[in-house]
Task: structure prediction
Amino acid sequence: MPASKEDGAASPRAEARKRRAVVAALMLSMGLAALDSTIVSTAVPQIVGDLGGFSVFSWLFSGYLLAVTVTLPVYGKLSDTFGRKPVLIAGSILFLLGSLLCAAAWNMAALIAFRVVQGLGGGALQGTVQTLAADLYPLEQRPKIQAKLSTVWATSAVAGPALGGVLAAYADWRWIFLINLPIGAVALWLLIRHLHEPGRDRDRARTRDGDRDRTRDGDRDRTRDTGKRPRPSRPRPRVDWAGALTVFACGGVLLTALVQGGVAWPWFSPPSIALFCTGIALIAALVLIERRAAEPIIPGWVWRRRTIAAVNLALGALGLLMVAPTVFLPTYAQSVLGLTPIAAGFVLSVWTLSWPVSAALSQHVYRRIGFRNTAMLGIGTATLLLLAFPFLPYPGEPWQPALLMLLLGAALGLFQLPLLIGVQSTVGWAERGTATASVLFCRQTGQTIGAALFGAVANGVLAARLGGAGDLDSVTRSLGSGASGEHVRRAVADAVHSVYFGAACAAGLAFLVLLLVAPRRFPVIKDPED
Result:
């Protein structure tokens, strides 16, 4: 008897160790996915100097982003069908294979192609890690694990450019990709050894029990005749490959139009028009395919349920507004405030301090006033902060935008995490991967649209202020060389102010969506007991 008590006491400790190992693997995987979205940026001069291909180097970023975005819905559905573990392991292997191939690239075309392979694995890392975090923890504990993942994401995204610059300067740019291999191998080993999916096992057990009951009732006579118990049958999972391929094609065409429009070719040029028309045709084809599919990649309930539809739209607006600080604030800090790149990065990075803290504390708010009202409080505050940016004094002090960023991070942590946890809590295990992937897909798409939209806004303001004297990139380069005067700095400030005003409009749109579309109380599903 004493031995059994000790065994019973050891079991919870063993389970806790396994869970910590899995959480460590999830954090490493999330860090890799976030790091590779930014780490290449500061190493571009070394890469171009070695491989050439300056005219197409932007596809190092665009190709990775496109692959991650278009695969999110597919991996979400596959994880609901086959389980999180095989999808995450397959995605990790694909990501590491892409990293190894990138390190061995012999020209720019090969490097771009291998970055796409990396992105195909990165989509599995982003979506499945978020879903597993909800599977492993009950509703009360999810804010802590999601706050940890948010911290890893924010830290990796901000540290990526600095790490890429260090590796390119003191080692070789290929180490930017080789560094993924040992980190990813550790995460993969931890997942294979320690990950156990209780939600999937419960689902299987319920299916086996139901099959066994149906077998007893329907095959009683045959059992009596043969003396053997018939084997219960389970329906074979069906994958909507036609829908998956159409999602790839549709997302790739439309995101390419948004990423390259106004950069590689004018917005109303034949390439842009052709891509948008093709994308619209593919959307129509996707709707027809998904209506007829037995297990659609993008099921209709994702948009028919008010809660999920509202959160998708609201987090799409979040992706849109995040472009203002992440893309344009460093330019503002260097061109208008005269800061060095390191100091400008610090002004941006302060929101990574307040965002995860606010996210972790948000549970104390949404338990009192609900998911929707907490998110509305956060996005309402963010709207006011974004509106305040254009009213900062010119040229101002660095602490002023830094303070706004610190407060903005706190507001967005109060906005994003309750919505993500709320959506994951309204669905069961068999739908959680699809629901989580739809949310992340909308946020990623919002960022892509925001980069194109706000880039056009900034360049339009500059053209109006300077009489068509180039775009934001060329103007900021001339400022850095000291070739331009005060009127150019004011034009850059006006351009960034306009972008922040647009971001405030996006935040206000998210507030209205939550107010008018989202239910007051999310229909939370209780987690079943193990």
